[in-house]
């Protein structure tokens, strides 16, 4: 099988369709595109999400915190706590683990998130460090936002720029090659994108503003996230390629490796749908968060991207472009 997340059709057939539990206090269950599960705790809902970091070598502690916390933020609230499992191969040193945990502690402190548990183990089952991070949050029941809430007529907003996380990972893990082809200055700028991969601030702002759906953009990139929002919501989408922001560093790095920035892992970007996209974009920008309206939610099932006079269907996400590079 291809490296990366299971294709959504395979995921549904061999995993999701086998999950039969129907407890009434589980409000959001595993489904295509849903970032979190939700458990009824009376007035509040407990939000839970779990994610591994497997596609990076450098900065994995920082990535683990933000990728997991972004899932909670996609429900419109700040995360409260994290559980961290670190699996490391036998050649790992104490200094390696200290570096990773230092990154985790630093980013958790910056987000005001507690590390509430976890597990650390040296094992021959992995050949490089793997982190699995579970995030916890809570929200008032009537305020919860899901991936599946998009409605026809909603405008589609993307925060920041496509390929943000993937650009940072490539610049860190392939720095020598990128610098030799595009210059050390560009490689250094691209590495700083790691500082922009938290989407907690925009998730909270959008939740307070009032939106219908949110989805943080991870494996499969912007196009994969669009497909998942539409599939989860039972809608279509139409987006315009020229409206999707792509940083010059991302454009040059993706061209160098012959990959598509719109299919590149993009933690730090939040995909949001709401009726008043202009108002939300204004609100986000006033809080220092770049955002753009890139399209609309449609009633039909078609998922389309328009580029000039050309129109193409958005397919279900395949293996992320990052794995072609790593």
Would you give an account of this structure?
Residues 151-305 form the PurM-like C-terminal domain. Belongs to the HypE family. The protein has 326 residues and is of the alpha+beta class. It folds into two domains: 8-143, PurM-like, N-terminal domain (60s Ribosomal Protein L30, Chain: A); 147-325, PurM-like C-terminal domain (Phosphoribosyl-aminoimidazole Synthetase, Chain A, domain 2), CATH 3.90.650.10. It has helices at residues 8-14, 60-73, 94-111, 164-173, 175-182, 184-191, 200-209, 221-233, 248-256, 277-286, 322-325; strands spanning 26-28, 37-41, 44-53, 79-88, 114-122, 130-140, 155-159, 213-216, 236-240, 270-274, 291-298, 303-307, 310-313. The strands form two sheets. It has a seven-stranded mixed beta sheet with strand order 8-10-7-11-9-12-13, with helices on both faces. A six-stranded mixed beta sheet has the order 1-2-3-6-4-5, covered by helices on one side. It starts with 7 loop residues before the first helix and ends with a helix.
Helical/strand content category = alpha+beta
In CATH terms, what is the architecture of the largest domain?
Alpha-Beta Complex
- CATH-defined superfamily of the largest domain: PurM-like C-terminal domain
The description of the largest β-sheet is: 7 strands, mixed
Q: Give the end-to-end Cα distance, rounded to a whole number of Å.
A: 16 Å
Q: What's the CATH topology label of the largest domain?
A: Phosphoribosyl-aminoimidazole Synthetase, Chain A, domain 2
Which CATH class of the largest domain applies here?
A: Alpha Beta
Helix content: 25-40%
Instruction: Output the number of helix runs.
Output: 11
Question: What is the percentage of strand-forming residues?
Answer: 25-35%
């Amino acid at each position: 099988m291809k490296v990366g997340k299971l294709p959504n059709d395979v995921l549904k057939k061999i995993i999701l369709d086998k999950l039969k539990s129907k407890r009434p206090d589980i409000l959001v269950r595993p489904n295509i595109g849903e970032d979190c599960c939700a458990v009824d705790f009376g007035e509040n809902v407990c939000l839970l999400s779990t994610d591994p970091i497997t596609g990076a070598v450098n900065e994995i502690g920082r990535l683990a915190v933000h990728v997991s916390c972004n899932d909670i933020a996609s429900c419109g609230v700040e995360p409260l706590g994290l559980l961290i499992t670190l699996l490391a191969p036998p050649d790992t040193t104490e200094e390696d683990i200290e570096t990773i945990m230092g990154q985790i502690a630093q980013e958790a402190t910056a987000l005001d998130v507690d590390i509430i548990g976890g597990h650390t183990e040296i094992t021959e089952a992995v050949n490089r460090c793997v982190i699995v991070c579970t995030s916890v949050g809570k929200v008032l029941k009537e305020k919860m936002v899901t991936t599946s809430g998009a409605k026809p007529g909603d405008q589609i907003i993307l925060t920041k720029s496509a390929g943000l996380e993937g650009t940072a990972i490539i610049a860190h893990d392939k720095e020598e090659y990128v610098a030799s082809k595009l210059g050390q200055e560009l490689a250094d700028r691209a590495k700083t994108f790691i500082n922009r991969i938290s989407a907690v601030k925009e998730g909270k702002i959008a939740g307070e503003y009032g939106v219908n759906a949110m989805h943080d953009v991870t494996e499969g990139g912007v196009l994969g996230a669009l497909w998942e929002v539409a599939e989860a919501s039972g809608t279509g989408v139409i987006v315009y390629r020229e409206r999707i922001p792509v940083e010059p560093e991302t454009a040059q790095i993706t061209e160098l490796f012959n990959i598509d920035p719109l299919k590149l892992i993009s933690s730090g970007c939040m995909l949001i749908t709401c009726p008043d996209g202009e108002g939300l974009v204004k609100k986000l920008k006033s809080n220092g968060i770049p955002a753009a309206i890139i399209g609309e939610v449609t009633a039909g099932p078609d998922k389309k991207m328009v580029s000039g006079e050309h129109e193409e269907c958005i397919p279900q996400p395949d293996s992320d472009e990052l794995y072609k590079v790593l």
